[in-house]
Specification:
This protein has one helix at residues 2-22; strands at 39-43, 65-82, 84-90, 106-107, 111-112, 114-125, 128-129, 131-135, 143-144, 153-157, 168-181, 199-205. It has 206 residues and is mainly beta. It has a 5-stranded antiparallel beta sheet with strand order 1-2-11-6-7, with no helix packed on it. Strands 9-8-10-3-12 form a 5-stranded antiparallel beta sheet, with no helix packed on it. It is globular and about 55 Å long.
Length: 206
């Protein structure tokens, strides 16, 4: 009787020990792809927009005010035809007045100064008219789009098929930047305020 109980207890201990070992390991997989060609983005004017000085009296009190609209030529040059997308990183994240724009900084650490929006127009892929497309899921699926809101991947497609990007060596496109200031009644404008928008435009290889 004692031997039987002892064996059962030993079997239970071994079963428990085996389960413990099984739960103590996990696999780590590292995957990726090295592409043969590199792509470099460039903006004319050094990528800087200076809208100058704006009088606080020229701002709307209860609604936002668009104070500037600028267009920069953007070129992405690759060593060979490459499937790519563009991603915009807002370096002033959390300071935009809504989710479809990029931040312009804060006043007194808590007042959102405004936003700027980005749009892509008149794209050309290797000197041929093309169409901008956008992806909300990191490049898995695509659809027509030209408004470059935060979180979107932007790419280029043939006008006949907007569901998939095309490989490109030289991608030329106009980058439209609209600068908008929040309602003046929500801001402390007793002193000069620096408009401080900054974003990083990066190439993503698909």
């Amino acid at each position: 009787m004692n031997k039987t109980l002892g064996f059962a207890a030993c079997a239970l201990l071994l079963a428990t020990s085996h389960a413990s070992f099984a739960a103590s390991t996990v696999d780590l997989t590292v995957k990726g792809l090295i592409v043969p060609s590199a792509c470099v983005p460039a903006l004319d004017g050094g990528g800087t927009i200076d809208i100058g000085k704006i009088s606080a009296k020229d701002l709307n009190q209860d609604t936002s005010t668009q104070v500037a609209s600028n267009t920069l030529q953007m070129t992405v040059t690759c060593e060979g035809k490459t499937l790519i997308a563009l991603n915009a990183i807002d370096n002033r994240a959390g300071s935009a007045i809504d989710t479809d724009g990029y931040g312009l900084g804060l006043i007194n650490s808590n007042q959102k100064l405004g936003k700027y929006t980005l749009g892509l127009l008149n794209p050309q892929a290797d000197s041929v008219a093309a169409q901008t497309i956008a992806s909300t899921d990191g490049g898995l699926t695509w659809g027509q789009g030209s408004d470059w809101t935060p979180g979107l991947y932007m790419s280029v497609a043939a006008p006949s098929d907007l569901s998939v990007p095309i490989p490109v060596q030289i991608w030329n496109v106009e980058l439209v930047v609209n600068t908008i200031i929040a309602a003046a009644s929500t801001l402390d404008l007793t002193n000069e305020v620096q408009i401080d928008g900054l974003s990083t435009l990066e190439v993503k290889y698909l």
